[in-house]
Amino acid sequence: MASDDTKTMQAMVMDGVGEPLRRQEDRQVPEPGAGQVRLRISACGVCRTDLHVVDGELEHPKDALIPGHEIVGRVDALGEGVTQYAEGDRVGVPWLAWTCGECRFCCSGQENLCENARFTGYQVDGGYAEYAVADARFCFAIPDVFDDEEAAPLLCAGLIGYRALRMAGDPEHIKRLGLYGFGAAAHIAAQVARHRGQDIYAFTRPGDTKGQDFARSLGATWAGGSLEMPPKPLHAAIIFAPVGDLVPAALKATLRGGTVVCAGIHMSDIPSFPYRLLWEERVLRSVANLTRRDGEEFFKIAAEVPVRTHTTSFALDQANEALRRLREGEIEGAAVLRP
Question: Could you tell me if residue 313 is inside a domain?
C-alpha cells in the first residue's frame, strides 16, 4: 500500500483487449489539476461496464487504462479553484467524468448525452488503484448511512438503476415491474421500487434458483427464468442483462401502453420480432449514462430506504478474478475491490 509521502502507487492496468489486467506497483500517483480532487481510494465497485471495456465491446479506451468507475475515497489533495470539498471529505466518483457544458444536450438538461463527454475508467483513469483524480463537479458526497463497501456499487449500478426506474414510468401507475437480470443494478433498483410501493417480478438466467431466491429475499413478488411468462402481465420492464433476446421476451410480458427499458451500455443484437409485440403503444427505449441530478436524487432516496447492497469483497490484485466471476454470473449482488 502506498503511503502519503510516496510518489507511486499500486494499480491494475489494461494493456490490451482480452488480456488480463496487469498489476503495476510503480504507477505515478496523479496530481489534481484545476477543478479536480485527488482521492485516496477505499473501495471501487466492479461493474459489468468494466467487462465491456476489458472485453473490447466498448472500443478505444485510453492507453494503459486503469478501469473502474464506482469509486469511494477520501479527498487528500485539492486542485486550484476547488471549494466544495475539503481534505478528508468522503466522496464518490461515477461513470460520467466530464461534460463540455456547451453542446445542445448540456444546455437542455441532458448532460448524460453530451457530445464530448468523457467517462471514468474508460477515457479517464479509474479506481482499480490506490489513488485517483476526478473533476470535483462530478463527484458526490456519500451519505453517512453507507460504509465504503456498501456505497461503491451505488455509483453506477445504483445510479443507472435509478435512471432506468425513472424512464420506466410513474410508480403510481407502474405497479408490476419486471427486472431482467438480477445482478448489481437490479438488486438495488428492486429495493427502491419496493420502497415506492411497486411489485417486483425478477427474471434470472434459466435455472438460476439461487438468483431467484436472492430476488425473493429482497421482496420480489415472483422470480423465474428470463424466458418464462410472469403470472400477471407487467406494467413496465427493465432489462439489465446485456442480452438482446430479452427485448422481445420483455415486450411479450408487458401490457399495452407499457414501457421496456434497456438499461445497459452494451447489449447483444436484438433479434427481429413481430410488430404485434410493439403494437398497442408499447414503448422501447434505452438509458444512457447519468446526470448529476440523477445522483443527487438517488443518494437522497437511497439513504431514506435505506438501500443495502450485497457485496463480495476482493483485494485490488484480485481484480481479474472479480471480473471472471462477474463474467460467469458467480457474483450475488456486487463485487467490490478494496485497495
Answer: yes
Distance CA(299)–CA(326), nearest Å, equals: 25
The per-residue b/e assignment along 79-89, b for 16 or more CB within 10 angstroms, e otherwise, is: beebeebeeeb
Q: pLDDT (tens digit, 9 = 90+) per residue, 190-221?
A: 999 999 999 999 999 999 999 999 999 999 99
- Give the range of the structural domain holding residue 182, as residue numbers without chain letter: 158-286
Average pLDDT of the chain is 96
* Spatial distance between the Cα atoms of 23 and 11, rounded to a whole number of angstroms: 6
pLDDT in tens, 291-331: 999 999 999 999 999 999 999 999 999 999 999 999 998 99
Chain-centroid distance, C-alpha 59: 18
Q: Same domain for 107 and 162?
A: no
173 and 114 together in one domain: no
- What are the C-alpha distances in Å from 181 to residues 25, 141, 254, 296? 36, 29, 16, 26
Is there a contact between 61 and 122 (Cβ–Cβ < 8 Å)?
yes
Same domain, yes or no, for 109 and 193? no
Burial class (CB in 10 A: 0-12, 13-18, 19+), 265: buried
pTM above 0.90, yes or no: yes
Same domain, 222 and 99: no
Question: What is the SS3 string spanning 80-121?
Answer: CCCCCCCCCCEEEECCEEECCCCCCCHHHCCHHHCCCCEEEC
Q: Distance (Å, rounded) from C-alpha 325 to C-alpha 313?
A: 12
Same domain? For 206 and 169 the reply is yes
Length of the chain: 339
Number of domains in the chain: 2
CA 265 to chain centre: 10
Helices 184-195 and 209-217 pack at an angle, to 10 degrees, of 30
Instruction: Return left, alpha or beta for 322; rule: phi > 0 is left, psi -120 to 50 is alpha, else beta.
Output: alpha
At 210 the three-state DSSP class reads helix
Same domain, 141 and 170: no
